[in-house]
What we know:
CATH superfamily of the largest domain: Glycogen Phosphorylase B
Bound molecules: uridine-diphosphate-N-acetylglucosamine
Helix content: 40-55%
Number of domains: 2
Number of helices: 16
Low-confidence stretches: none
CATH class of the largest domain: Alpha Beta
Radius of gyration: 20 Å
Mean pLDDT: 97
Amino acid sequence: MHIINIxxxxxxxxxxxxxxxxxxxxxxxxxxIKQTLVHTGQHYSPEMSDILFTQLGLPEPDxxxxxxxxxxxxxxxxxxxxxxKILFDIKPDVVLVVxxxxxxxxxxxxxxxxxxxxxxxxxxxxxxxxDMPEEINRILTxxxxxxxxxxxxxxxxxxxxxGHSSDKIHFVGNVMIDSLIxxxxxxxxxxxxxxxxxxxxxYVLATLHRPxxxxxxxxxxxxxxxxxELAKDKTIVFPAHPRTVAxxxxxxxxxxxxxxxxxxxxxxxxxxxxxxxxxxxxAVVTDSGGIQEETTYLGVPCLTLRENTERPVTITEGTNILxxxxxxxxxxxxxxxxxxDNKQAPALWDGKAAxxxxxxxxxxx
Length: 365
Ligand code: UD1
């Protein structure tokens, strides 16, 4: 079996790394399985891509399509055009995509139209918010996938409700947590806390990058003011996504996200440093999807600045609180944070999801 694994944007790298390792493990046991790693180049800055490859122990991509940034149509279209050529050339048996970014849907469409099996890892998650580009990518990718690997029960339930055959759906756990577990020791060894002058539990980690939060001056200013309020209680560490940095600059909001307001703004951080910051924080304030899962696993309170989440298990079984973006609500929930309220990791978030995925694929080929 020849599998092409696709990565494109930052959160894909943590999801693919354990899958690449699981394939290598089976290969070393004499199983006839081959893999090719394709990077679409959706993310390309060293801090959004290269450093993560190094820290996650990912091999250099076999092929980089170097697509870069663009509008949704441009980016998706360019990936489709370039990836199709690779498929003509390599003729794999399987294309494996993860998550919900533009690279995910673009490569899935190419493969499906050429009669190649499509595997979607992290299938079935639904925010039920069609204004999110990721929700469109999720629904479309699932609709053409031959294997749907889910991370939580809601994913399986959503797929069944949408009419997918249960034969295609496999609840295997969470590959992002596989990566987290296998990198915790390295995260503990980083010096990021002392580099930033922080100590355990005396700071809040914040991230913002969703277009709905950062693409208009009004919303970004509202959230910036809110962080400034929280920073009166504890230092805020704010590793800023390139999209957010560009908008802070173009909207002239640099005065809000500033050291004088007790907000430490940094570049996007490497994986180990970031995990170390989550683990030792008083709380995390974010609009990211993956961070809701990482905080749940680590038992760190997470205030999610969104109206919905596609990862409800992080609320029902984890440490996540969905608070929307109303400043009063954010401040109120912040005051209520109880870090002793530790919960258990959701089912099958045990570091073995990638092995289950590869073994399932091998068992049905
Ligand atoms: C993408 C994903 C989003 C994911 C996020 C993680 C889609 C639709 N969105 O959003 O689901 O949560 O990645 O980061 O696929 N840029 C750089 N360097 C890079 C990449 C981007 O400077 O390496 C800048 C560019 O100015 C670009 C902007 O960031 O225009 C946004 O990048 P893009 O890939 O379009 O979307 P993200 O917001 O990163």
